[in-house]
Amino acid sequence: MTSGSTVRNELQGGAGASFARWGGVLAGALFMIAAGPSAAGAGVCSDTASLQFAACKAEVKDDYLGARAICLNTTDDAEHEACVEEADEARSEDTEGCREQRAARRELCDALGEAAYDPDVDPAQFEDPRSPALLNSHLPLAVGNRWTHEGGGETVVVEVLDETKHIEGVDCLVVRDRVFEDGELVEDTDDWFGLRINGDVWYFGEEVKDFEFFEGDDPEVPELVSIDGSFKAGRDGDKAGTLIRNAPQVGDSYRQEWSAGNAEDAARVVSTSYGYGNDPELDAFVPQALAELLCNDDCWVNAEFTPLEPDAFELKYYAPGIGRFLEVSPEDGSIVQLVDCNFDARCAALPIP
User: Fold this and answer.
1) CB under 8 A, 24+ apart: contacts of 42-48
2) How far apart are CA 4 and CA 353, in angstroms?
3) Largest CB tally within 10 Å, which of 37, 207, 292, 328?
4) Crossing angle (nearest 10°) for helices 77-112 and 44-72
5) Buried b vs exposed e over 78-92: b needs ≥16 C-beta within 10 Å?
6) DSSP state of 309
7) Any idea which of 41-45, 84-88, 214-218 has the lowest mean pLDDT?
8) What gap in Å lies between CA 278 and CA 249, rounded to an integer?
9) Is the whole-model pTM more than 0.70?
10) Backbone angles phi, psi at 162, to 5 degrees
11) Whole-number Å distance between alpha carbons of 334 and 150
């Protein structure tokens, strides 16, 4: 894990200077610029962060005690000693992780305000998500649309299914998101999107299924190993958020989802007029041919972040008529880019990574 101070130092030059110019993306939370603790009782948001910190520490203790129980049943002396040492190290690292998450949540409170997060999901403000008239220009979720992204050794295929799911009185589109490594399925997720009459795309949850393959199995088939990250608005306190706005303003900050300790993504609008060559920092790591094909000073860029992983954030680029075509991790320069889609002629000319 990279420390917050390391990330800050790496970003003070180059892209970091422009992020300061943007007004402190998500009030600095995206870069883990450590701030002093908020005053006790400063507001609902900060108080929530404090409660989540306590819950995180309790989970660390639970994991540690469970690990020690496993160690007790390891009879080989060397293996027992190594087991205890590993449990102690994990407890220390995880406790520090709880502190970093608390700091990130508090800085997010600085950006979003201290009010309780309780979005008003009024079904009257949502329409049939299959209606072409309601498509968001920068995230065209028409039934049958399919995108393929590649990067980091993975292939990601996203497809809008001809299915809906009724959540909190809203009919949501089902969008399947599958991740492949070396041609093998490792993640299969159904996302649930609602479309407001103003064109905003709301995110009502996801059903996540992570798979692994184990050598020696006969037949070798994917085995479900985790559903972590799954949540559904209206269940167990989980709440919907805005995935992307239809008329964003630079500087807008908002939650994209909220499932305490499980799914807490947030976004800040960085640009609504991106074109290659206009901003060197935004151009960093962006394939020039890709941006020039899809952007004519009309692409949107969001900075997206979760306090659950306070050392990392992503810049996501959206093109009109296409949707998300690039994800950039400024910390290490890694990218995931669009390589194919089935609904726009420009997709036939997409550069290959």
Assistant:
1) 42/109, 42/114, 43/109, 43/113, 43/114, 43/115, 44/114, 44/115, 44/116, 45/105, 45/108, 45/109, 45/112, 45/113, 45/114, 45/115, 45/116, 45/117, 46/106, 46/109, 46/114, 48/105, 48/260
2) 30
3) 328
4) 170
5) eeeeebbeebeeebe
6) S
7) 41-45
8) 18
9) yes
10) -85, 60
11) 11
Spatial contact of 21 and 328, defined as CB atoms under 8 Å apart: no
Give the Cα separation of 332 and 330 in Å (integer).
6
Which among 62, 123, 122 is positioned nearest to 95, based on CA atoms? 62
Strands 231-232, 253-255: pairing is unpaired
Whether 29 shows a pLDDT value over 50: the answer reads: no
Cβ count near 104 (within 10 Å): 30
Strand 323-329 relative to strand 334-341: parallel, antiparallel, unpaired? Answer: antiparallel
How many other β-carbons are positioned within 10 Å of the β-carbon of residue 228? 9
- In the chain, the amino acid numbered 348 is A
Better-predicted residue by pLDDT, 353 or 22: 353
Q: And the tokens for 275?
A: 């074109």
Contact by Cβ (8 Å): 270, 279: no
Q: What is the CA radius of gyration of the chain?
A: 21
Q: Which two tokens stand for residue 42?
A: 């400063």
Residue 110 DSSP label:
H
Q: What is the pLDDT of residue 131?
A: 76
What value, to the nearest 5°, has the Cα angle with vertex 87 and ends 210 and 307?
Answer: 50
Give the sign of the dihedral formed by CA 267, CA 269, CA 274, CA 280: negative
Burial class for 221, CB neighbours closer than 10 Å (0-12, 13-18, 19+): exposed
Using alpha carbons, select from 125, 163, 256 the residue that is nearest to residue 202.
Answer: 256
pLDDT reported for residue 141: 93
d(CA 26, CA 175): 28
Helical segments of the chain, H only: 4-11, 15-21, 44-72, 77-112, 280-283, 288-294
CA distance 329 to 316: 9
Residues 230 and 224: their CA atoms lie apart, in Å, by 14
The residue written with tokens 């299969």 in the block is 188
Q: How far is CA 283 from the centre of its chain?
A: 21
Chain mean position to CA 107: 17
